[in-house]
Amino acid sequence: MDKGSSVGLLLGLITISLGMFLKGVSPVAIINPAALVIIFLGTAASVCIAFPMRTLKNIPVLLKIIFTKEKNQDYKEVITQFEEWADVTRKEGLLWLEGQLNNINDPFLVSGLQLIVDGQSPDFVKEVMLEKIDAMEQRHQKGVSIFTQAGTYAPTLGVLGAVIGLIAALGNMEDVEALGKAISAAFVATLLGIFSGYVLWHPFANKLKEKSENEALVKMIMIEGLLSIANGESPQVVKDKLYSYLPSKSILKMEQEGANDKKEA
């Protein structure tokens, strides 16, 4: 479970409910069927028009990614693995890697290792792997675009919902009490539109973008590790090269964890 997404969603719901309560408005007022239909069904309709069905069918997967913790994003584990491979391959040769292919679950890494085992040049390996990353980022961008567009449509639909509500309210001017309730309900649509756009859809898009960037970074580290092994570089050189992709705080944390592991051993 991605704690950031879950905590953020919970805080958003608490904020809107507490804010309404402190303003003397019952949080139950937000449960307005007409407003919910206009905002959420209207946003869904807009997104369906904007994107082909082959893109939209990935929405359940995208939501799972947003609320699921990334896998295979442990930089320390990746770098340590390449250090070990560099040490062994300098003694046993690159063909030793062929025996490791069945033990790896990452298709990207497997394809890179297979290219090296097949004797492809480092330049060719780098070109192929970078193309894979580029294709991955393009796929991810489609998912980001869905939620970005939803975040753009929802607030505007909120205004549309308010206008519809006001039209209904002005059509019943004789009953002052009913008029007040109708106007209040009209602005619930605006509230839901802004809330869903800026607390749900835009943040969802940003979370997908960040996870895509993290995945691309791990893959760039893998490419550098693969090229270093293909060039027969020492484990220390491999480690230094891969560390160059990380911020100084991450490097310091990894060094401290390494030191602690040695002490425990």
Describe the structure.
The protein is mostly helical and 265 residues long. It has two domains: 1-29; 32-259, no CATH class. The protein is 79% helix and 0% strand. The chain contains ten helices and no strands. The chain has helices spanning 3-22, 33-50, 53-56, 59-66, 75-92, 107-117, 122-170, 176-230, 235-243, 248-264. The chain is elongated, with a radius of gyration of 26 Å. 23% of the residues are buried.
Number of strands: 0
| Uncertain parts | none
The amount of helix comes to over 70%
- Which outline best applies? elongated
Number of domains: 2
Mean pLDDT: 87
Structural class category:
mainly alpha
Strand content bin: under 5%
Number of helices: 10
Distance between the termini: 31 Å
The largest β sheet comes out as: none
Q: Over the alpha carbons, how many angstroms does the gyration radius reach? A: 26 Å
Write the H/E string, N to C.
Answer: HHHHHHHHHH
Q: Key features?
A:
single chain; mainly alpha; elongated
Write a concise synopsis of the structure shown.
This protein has helices at residues 3-22, 33-50, 53-56, 59-66, 75-92, 107-117, 122-170, 176-230, 235-243, 248-264. By secondary structure, the protein is mainly α.
